[in-house]
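Quick bug: 6-phosphofructo-2-kinase domain-containing protein output formatted oddly.
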Amino acid sequence: MATDRIQSHASVSKHWDCRICAGTPVSRRLGFSPGCGATCQCACASSIPASVPQFTNSPTMIVLVGLPARGKTYISKKLTRYLNWIGVPTKVFNVGQYRREAVRSYSNFEFFRPDNEEAMKIRNATISQHLFCTQVFDATNTTRERREVILSFAKEYGYKVFFVESICDDPEIIAENIKQVKLSSPDYVNCDKDEAVADFLKRIECYKVTYVPLDDDCDRNLSYIKIFNVGSRYLVNRVQDHIQSRIVYYLMNIHVTPRTIYLCRHGESDLNLLGRIGGDSGLSSRGNKFAAALGKYIRSQCIPDLKIWTSHMKRTIQTAEAVGVPYEQWKALNEIDAGVCEEMTYEEIQEHYPEEFALRDQDKYRYRYPKGESYEDLVHRLEPVIMELERQENVLVVCHQAVMRCLLAYFLDKSADELPYLKCPLHTVLKLTPVAYGCKVESVFLNVEAVNTHRDRPVVVFITVFAAVLVMM
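Here's what came back:
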């Protein structure tokens, strides 16, 4: 435990959970105001070294840097979604949102002028109030003084800090971002479109006056990644641990090119008809009809440069072959391994393994079949698939129920508690279209009937030493 090793922090009186390092507790002292006494001591080099006293599992604070309309909120939300999906509980704090709560009505760009002292106090107070609970800190953070405040806080409370700076000088990208995202902001409700654009451009100019980018020499002790023009180039400096490495790897794989991802399960299988889980059976007659219908549907979509991925299992391969497009097999897309329960019905599992049956319903995400896998294991197995999906453009993934749930949970930002109960029916295609801060979902049923393999969440589970009693919905 990290708290057992922290000797330099006197008067430890409170423990809280680390959100960026799998729950390692970290001690913090009371009575610190993060907004005081943290000014830059040097015009160039950061006065607070990045390598503050930290332990291997110290929590990481991810701090966005950049002018408005540079995609910082897009990066923050996407990164938060990824970290939560891989099991690193993370929350994003958008300073603009809290600023709007502090100042109910927005007048114009004058609020962001560097010489507007009253507005500056409000913005700084908003930041100070939320540093205590920040994991992904979504704000401009364009001045060295602001970043020193954050580093001072991090040093005091044992955080590692990783900066993510988004730099964009492409007018077309900036204009598109303003059009797609900023004009729908609460700041511009009932505002003329052209006036809103003009005001926002003036807001950007206000920030440019005091903007000091991260510097390769002056900030060489800091940990950061600089992203240029939405991923055309990257600069990475002083990565400290595996979490930061994963953040860098993820950010270097995402892109904003319009694309569509299609998810579907294989056609109905012979074992599906028998109500048996797992196995490697072929398609039923209705499953073959679905495969033909899937091929017809995909061809009707006229999708450019479509890639098709399957698992190594017969039922997905047979489904993909009917599409008539070359496909790629991924072992990572194989169905969850049910271990000793492979090819059993749920009734047989309840009869032969009553305690295991009840334990799985208590925590379906983390429960691991004897000699098999859990949903948590499956998420880790699918991480390379997610990375490659983020790199690609149009892809059809023909997979299995548990696998599809994991992939869908990533794109829809579903929790570990929700993930194992997402409905992914047979013979239905989910069309996912990434949008500004999320994902649009269309469900397309291809008019071929199939068995229902979905099992609802149980209401209550009671476990005793001798028996398991399940109260179902």
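Actually, after a second look the formatting is fine. The two ends are 40 Å apart (CA to CA). Closing.
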